[in-house]
User: Fold this.
Amino acid sequence: MKVYLHRFETPLQHPFTIARGTTHSVRSLIVEIQHEGQIGYGEATEHLYYDISLETLTEAVNRCVPEIESGRYVDAEALWNAVAPKCGNSFALAAIDAAAHDLFGKLKHRCTHEMLGLVWEKIPDSSFTIGIDSIPRMIAKMHERDRWGIFKIKLGTENDVEIVRELRAESDAVFRVDANCAWTVEETLQNAEALKMLGVEFIEQPLPADARPEDNFRLLKHSVLPIIADESCLVEADLERCHGFFHGINVKLSKCGGVTPAVRMLRRARELGMKTMVGCMVESSVGISAAAQLLPLLDYADLDGAELLEGDIADGVMIVDGVPRLSDRFGNGVMLGDK
Assistant:
């Protein structure tokens, strides 16, 4: 095997604002693994909240390159088990793992979801994310995607309920909201009452990730809307801690370390009776195509990352008006744009 790295910076169609700040472009590292005439691709993006930069990503991947290039692996999980102890960076590990899944699927002429024992049926549609902005601009962004049936609305302002009320006046689509740790317990309980009346389906991560267990438990018991963990459920060990405190989890490949641990998390969550969701980190089709392979395990999907970009750097799984469409390639179905 041979490993190659590619760096990209891609502007967003619109500035993307959440409760923690605004992003204008995405810097990403693409991991390419070649073997026996096939190429697998994985992606990791910079994320200041988690102290992830292109430099730290590159350093982490390079620590793993000798292990990747010298090893003899039968599948992606075996490669993940070999490099995980050395990587020290879940975002970089996720990119390596996605590239491995893409590669082994292509080598064996099977899609990654098939390699994982999943059947492509009962696939949920994806939401499209509306970042925080002035209400008129949020309405305009929503109307740009009128054919989408689900919108995830970023909140964490002084007028959150008003935002949703104004958007609801313009659309009968399914609404979900994501407060990105910006609310208190009392705000969540009060907002949930109003948001339920406005047809909101669930609330994602209203409290800070370090909120007291008793506060999360109070929401579990008293919120009139389901509460989905995101920042509180980063890695496998977090899942058991979230059980009994959240109604469901949002798994992101970059946070948990890749497809390999994500599958275990989602299957365990279902065993525990929790709702399952996979989100993204505003990635290109390289990252989205890897995450999309988990769709058969999901109740909810938020895989609009490539749709938020001004231009995509790759071709793979497409999210067409919210509906996932598989690539005609094996593995994750990815091909980098200049290949």
About this structure: The radius of gyration is 19 Å. The chain has a mean pLDDT of 96. The chain has twelve helices and 15 strands. The longest helix spans residues 90-107.
